[in-house]
Amino acid sequence: MAETSDNPAPETIADLMPQTPDLLGERLATLRELFPDLFDGEGGLLEKELRALADPSYHPAAERYEFSWTGKTRSKREAFAPSRAALVYDAKRSVNPDKAGGNVIIEGENLEVLKQLTAAYRERVKLIYIDPPYNTGKDFVYSDDYTEGRKPYWEQSGVTERGVKVDTNSDSEGRFHSNWLSMMHARLLAARYLLREDGVIFISIGDQEVANLRRLMDTVFGEEHFITQFIWEKKKKPSFLDKSVGGVAEYVICYGRSEKALYPLSVAVTTAGKRTPLNNAGNSERTLTFPAGRVQFMIEDGTVKAQDMSEGNIVTKLLDDVTVSEGRNVASFRLKGEFRYSQDKLDEVLASGDAITISKVPFRPNHIKAGGEPKKMKNLLSISHYQVETYEDASAEIVSLFGDSVFDYAKPPGLISLLIAAATYEEPDALILDFFGGSGTTAQAVMDLNADGGNRRFILVQLPEFTKEDSAAYKAGYKKISDITIERNKRVIDRYRKEAEGLLPTDPKRQYAGSLGFRVYTLEKSHFPRVDFAPDPEKTEAENVELLRAYIKEKENTFARAYDRERILDEVLLKNGFMFDRTITPASEFKKNKVEFVQDAHRTALICLDASIAPETVDEFDGDKDRTFICLEAALDTTKKWNLKHHLGDRLRAV
């Protein structure tokens, strides 16, 4: 993006590139501003690590004690490096796009896609669920390092019918765990930027990496934000192939983005009238003050004198006389004893509207719940208690939709619906992200859950990984896993339609209420020719900037007259922070250029992608104090750009 302040800093090559936010640069600038003393040259506490992130050739001599593995620094560098790719709308594979309501399925490498989402969706996602590869010694995901001869993702997929082959992480390799950790580390770091402060992340995992995943999550999210480790009863019966014990469980790790995420996970509410005694023998002795009029007495009106009310193993002393009138205490009073509640807890109970009752002398206060508040879940997701679905149910659902078992070990939609419900009961229009989309279960889970009247939205990301040629999926025509991701949810929506039209029996579990559609995007190379510019290593940054400007003028003047407008529009808007469910309408006051008004839930702007901006269009912004204007860098000559900067300041976005 071009610099637009009154006192611009020297431009860099990165400023002129159509790329996602430079997260490393942001982190570095913030830290330097807050703690300048930590950046005192080579000896600074953070200087070495930051140099290692920014410069692949630099390696610190020693690293302090921490959870570490081979490739950790490189994976962090990959996470924060900006992306110069683009997301392209695929109308042919989208389903009811006018009813998508923000639902999106993206075919592409997930680390690059997460970066593409950063400008528009930073701190917008309420919940992330992922089911990453379990690192069993089979294929998982391909390497992120393109410096050793591997072609970039879009080149690799472009020459193989838009599909990719994944790398094998053999358990005989010395870096078996390191490869997996590096792959996960980069993606979790990038994904964390998308979570809201009150957001949560759920990760399904097996025995192989559960310990490493916990330590990795402590590193990325902070151990103080650990919420729970669910045990999921994944099978009704163990496999006969199990060697030592019958394995019927896997795990779901849950962390919060911050302290604001530490609220009850709940799929039920408490029952009205439940009684909890405040006295509890063996607790620490403390004095509680009961405010005037807040205790309900089931004794006759009158006065009870201060006295020792201990009896048996219950220690209670009434420290004040209590006068009861119309079943309530006239004044405050104190009880000293072994109580399970602190004064703060008692005050919280009373503030919530719950009742404290005393039925006789000696006093034994009880907490009577009003009911209806969230009831905390158990961390055992069992078939008997939560009627949770299993792998057998997941397989049956795949066969029901496709007529064959085209995907192995899909998670059941009921499991994911349960987890989403547990975190979104107060926000039925929450945004859900899954960047290991697999067979597309999470999208189905979101749509199924919206039977509660909600309108939760989903974004799924799936690598166009080739299916194996001897698999049922390949034989059924699904050459890539992402084909299954999209087709599954197309069929789910079609099933809802048929049920609504009476063509299929209605399943009470699938009374759908939300948006019945989704838009499909694919990850491709940026449409701007300038991304192919190679700086001259013998020249200074300023000299290379001038070379890049000349390159833009030469290449993009032609490009601006011949590009696919819809594709470039999607790229520009997403990188300028507009979400997928934006609206675009003509701005009729502009007569000489095609200018449009774009708006989503969080921002607005005017955009013009014409090859040249007319002087009359520039004049329309004279005195404008509120609007942001986005246009092509190549569409402005020096005079027009100066005038627009004068009118708009940093609200001009020349791309």
Protein model, in words:
The protein has 655 residues and is α/β, with parallel strands linked by helices. It has 3 domains: 85-267 and 376-523, Vaccinia Virus protein VP39 (Rossmann fold, 3-Layer(aba) Sandwich), CATH 3.40.50.150; 271-371, no CATH class; 539-655, no CATH class. Helix content is 29%, strand content 20%. It contains 18 helices and 28 strands. The strands form 6 sheets. It has a 10-stranded mixed beta sheet, with helices on both faces. α2 (47-54) crosses α3, α4 (110-121) runs parallel beside α6 (176-192) and α6 (176-192) runs parallel beside α7 (210-221). The longest helix is centred in the C-terminal third of the chain and has 20 residues, at 481-500. The termini are close together.
How many β-strands, per DSSP?
28
* Percentage of residues assigned to helices: 25-40%
> What kind of oligomer do you see?
single chain
Question: pLDDT average, as an integer?
Answer: 87
Key attributes of the depicted protein:
five-stranded mixed sheet, 18 helices, 28 strands, 655 residues, ten-stranded mixed sheet, alpha/beta
